[in-house]
């Protein structure tokens, strides 16, 4: 059903594109660039709404990459960005992508942060031959429509099944956990994580003794916690975002739950500690593509530059968008063009950034390690790379 809906949106967007033949964006996707030309990138992020924490972090990461490129001695082009607020809504995101492509004439799109808003742009981008790079669209199968890979869509994050599999392996083999409770948000993201974790945890000999779910926006989890406390378990896997998961952690700890708590990259926000209380973020692990533990020199330089620019430290989302933008800029320098030439350069790229070194697989997802980080009073203290079993 989702694929059909997106196709309908894309068809409408394509019609708009045909009517916009004389706009400033006409032909931009096929343009060849010479040194000194101004090239536009489109930044499509959740700047308002319930997941604005993610979108703003990615927006800042992308802007920093562009600023650094323009300040670099001998840079090939002058990069300008056009931005849109998709509000975390799929329909708004499609409209934003269409405007950036047909009216603003961007060579490539960066964002959005969330899977549903990102997926909504892929057909429009592919129809117009404009590459779109998703920093954090982790949804399982996001890069395909009815089994066919979107030619112009790429992501620099691992997909949900990959990180959930890594966490199941870590819980069983590294932590020695045997009995799990799984609590997930009612969404593609939450259910995808929960289903994969459950399947993989069982494959390692573990048992899932209870599964509960909640809706985005819920704030009182007492009934769920009361139910699971009737079970004997040594680990709790939370499949959702920081907004609700922080409150679940807080309420579970205050109710006397002593089990290890695990999560996914939806935990990645400074708001998590505010929601949960830093004192409750002990023996809490989550999967991520980014950690400052044992930071490389390249990562340290990024952290310093980001802090100088914005007065705060970057998080995983900032770093993924920073890498996404630098990847496009590297490909743009080598291709010297938009459209098919830029797409081919991205598809075959070997990229080294602050979230790791990777290439793209045949489904346009990166081949990279998952990091599992531990927290002590809300601060990352160790990071373990985990490669999930197939």
From TrEMBL:
Residues 1-20 form the signal peptide. CDD domains: PBP1_ABC_LivK_ligand_binding-like. Keywords: Amino-acid transport, Signal, Transport. InterPro entries: BCAA_transport, Leu-bd, Leu_Ile_Val-bd, Peripla_BP_I. It holds the Pfam family Peripla_BP_6. SUPFAM superfamilies: Periplasmic binding protein-like I (SSF53822). PANTHER family: LEUCINE-SPECIFIC-BINDING PROTEIN (PTHR30483), PERIPLASMIC BINDING PROTEIN OF ABC TRANSPORTER FOR NATURAL AMINO ACIDS (PTHR30483:SF6). Belongs to the leucine-binding protein family. This is Penicillin-binding protein activator.
């Amino acid at each position: 059903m989702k694929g059909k809906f997106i196709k309908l949106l894309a068809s409408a967007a394509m019609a708009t594109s045909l009517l916009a033949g004389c706009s400033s964006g006409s032909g931009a996707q096929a343009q060849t660039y010479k040194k000194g030309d101004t090239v536009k990138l489109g930044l499509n992020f959740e700047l308002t709404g319930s997941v604005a924490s993610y979108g703003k972090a990615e927006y800042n990461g992308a802007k920093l990459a562009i600023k650094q490129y323009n300040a670099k001695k001998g840079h090939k082009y002058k990069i300008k960005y056009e931005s849109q607020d998709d509000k975390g809504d799929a329909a708004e995101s499609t409209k934003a992508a269409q405007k950036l492509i047909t009216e603003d004439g961007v060579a490539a799109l960066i964002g959005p942060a969330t899977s549903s808003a990102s997926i909504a742009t892929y057909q429009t981008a592919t129809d117009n031959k404009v590459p779109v790079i998703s920093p954090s669209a982790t949804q399982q199968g996001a890069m395909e429509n009815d089994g066919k890979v979107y030619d112009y869509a790429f992501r620099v994050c691992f997909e949900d099944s990959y990180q959930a599999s890594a966490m199941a392996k870590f819980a069983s083999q590294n932590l020695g956990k045997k009995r799990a409770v799984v609590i997930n948000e009612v969404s593609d993201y939450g259910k995808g994580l929960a289903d994969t974790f459950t399947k993989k945890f069982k494959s390692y000999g573990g048992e899932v003794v209870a599964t509960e779910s909640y809706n985005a926006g819920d704030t009182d989890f007492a009934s769920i916690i009361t139910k699971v406390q009737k079970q004997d378990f040594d680990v709790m896997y939370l499949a959702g975002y920081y907004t609700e998961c922080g409150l679940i952690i807080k309420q579970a700890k205050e109710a006397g739950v002593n089990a290890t708590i695990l999560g996914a990259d939806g935990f990645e926000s400074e708001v998590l500690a505010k929601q949960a209380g830093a004192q409750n973020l002990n023996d809490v692990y989550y999967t991520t593509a980014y950690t400052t533990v044992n930071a490389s020199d390249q990562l340290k330089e990024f952290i310093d530059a980001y802090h100088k620019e914005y007065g705060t430290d970057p998080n995983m989302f900032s770093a993924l968008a920073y890498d996404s933008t630098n990847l496009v800029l590297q490909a743009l320098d080598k291709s010297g063009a938009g459209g098919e030439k830029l797409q081919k350069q991205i598809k075959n790229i070997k990229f080294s950034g602050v979230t790791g070194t990777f290439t793209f697989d045949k489904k346009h997802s990166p081949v990279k390690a998952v990091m599992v980080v531990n927290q002590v009073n809300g601060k990352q203290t160790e990071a373990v790379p985990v490669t999930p079993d197939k």
